[in-house]
Amino acid sequence: MIKELPSLVIPGATIEILKASCASCSMHQLCLPMGLDNNDMERLDQIIGRRRKVARGATLFRIGDAFQNLYAIRLGHFKTYQVNREGAEQITGFQMAGELLGMDAISADQHHCTAVALEDSEVCEIPFATLQQLLAEMPTLLRHFHRMMSQEITREQSVMLLLGNMQATQRFAAFLINLSSRYEARGYSPNTFQLRMSREEIGNYLGLTIESISRLLSKFKKEGLVRVSNREIELLDTRMLKAITAGTETCG
Amino acid sequence: MIKELPSLVIPGATIEILKASCASCSMHQLCLPMGLDNNDMERLDQIIGRRRKVARGATLFRIGDAFQNLYAIRLGHFKTYQVNREGAEQITGFQMAGELLGMDAISADQHHCTAVALEDSEVCEIPFATLQQLLAEMPTLLRHFHRMMSQEITREQSVMLLLGNMQATQRFAAFLINLSSRYEARGYSPNTFQLRMSREEIGNYLGLTIESISRLLSKFKKEGLVRVSNREIELLDTRMLKAITAGTETCG
DNA sequence: CGGTCAATTGACCACAGTCAAGCTTGGTGG
DNA sequence: CCACCAAGCTTGACTGTGGTCAATTGACCG
């Protein structure tokens, strides 16, 4: 299933067909093909439209775009955001390799958020109409697809808890712990990683200002919880950060 | 498909098998069977475990319960909430007739939130394992089920926008307008309705305190936007409320 | 009736927002 | 190599929105 086609360009994003398959992708135990046998994975591979590159800052889809495809992130990071009528953005999530983009578009056949690459990234385009046919024939795939949608619901509920109930310090600790565990699940260091998003984007996501994020970073640094250098961050006291997240920390 | 069986009781909730079917249910154009032909609707009807009553204040499922069923609300209102490690609740939604409960439980085979009836209510129990078999055979049902899950994702994203970006006044106006439009979609008056939840529950949902909700109600009353008497509310100036929601209102 | 619970209102306060100045960092060009 | 600039980040001083605490009113019910 190796595909070789000339690359093409659309406004703001470079598209290129890559030699790739689910079986050879390091994310296949997290992504849509999770748990499929070789035969089923091959079938899924065949319906994947193309693998394309999305340059840093380029838009994968925007609010109002007609819904055609889901996108599985092969490599890189994205943010998704909503825009209210005033034009204010609210970032609804940061997505990394192995995660699915576009599931909110199924309900009304058009995208309800905009997805932008935070760094040079690669996605697999999954034509939803074709996927749906396949779902009817492959119970394992159907099951896992439902799990992924459900996981998105659960994730958003956690953010609601964060935004509705937590203090600034708690929100930020929760954010760091969340990133940490997701990197760990991908085989990366849970303690040292790059923040792919700006302070402004973090603040927007957490319902805080950029100044608050900056102050919180300084505070955590002073308390010996983290080491920070620009976007490089090291978690020095995960235990404490988790305690802050849970609201059970005792000392100040 | 009329079922007639003796009623039984489980702790906290009365269960009773009712004479009912999707075809005879007033919600079937909003609920899971939307768009199904008579034959398919009949098949869906057959897998529905039972129709049961849930008394006001009774719990339908709680966090950590093993996932067996989805629940379609036939009648009444529910709230769902998450609990953090400190024991603080965050209400993640208010659900009404025609809406589906339990979709967040698919991902990990256990419920991630607790669902409690806000008034005496009735639900249809949908065994998920059986539903999934049916989904593979009925493309229309599959399609609509995905729409409903996607709609839940979209709804939660709107709440994230509300909690992350909006001021107290804006949040509360958005809340009222949201209820209004959902009652309208069900054929009820969009202007006059009962608030099924307490001020405290509204505040919790909107990330505000009960005092703030009370003050906002008084403010809206004074400005002639609403008329309130206990839980009975009448929206007198929907146009203005929508403007406040959108953040585009000009006068104070 | 009094008792209970929910809602309202007022006084005060604190957390995080706003505004503003200053500091890094990285890129460009002389 | 350094000057210059822009963008992003940090820090401080001040402010305001909404939280906290407390007292009062109102609704419902045995």
Describe the fold and architecture.
2 copies of one chain form a homodimer. In chain A, 38% of the residues lie in helices and 23% in strands. Chain A has helices at residues 38-47, 128-137, 139-165, 168-185, 199-206, 210-222, 238-246, and strands at 8-10, 13-15, 51-54, 59-61, 69-75, 77-83, 89-96, 100-101, 114-117, 121-127, 192-194, 226-229, 232-235. In chain A, the strands form 4 sheets. Chain A has a 4-stranded antiparallel beta sheet. A 4-stranded antiparallel beta sheet of chain A has the order 4-9-6-7. A 3-stranded antiparallel beta sheet of chain A has the order 11-13-12. Residues 1-18 of chain A have low confidence and may be disordered. Chains A and B meet through helix 2, helix 3 and helix 5 of A and helix 2, helix 3 and helix 5 of B. Chain A binds a DNA duplex (30 and 30 nucleotides) through residues 167-168, 198-200, 208-215, 217-218, 230. Chains A, B: This is Fumarate/nitrate reduction transcriptional regulator Fnr. Chains A, B: It comes from Duganella radicis.
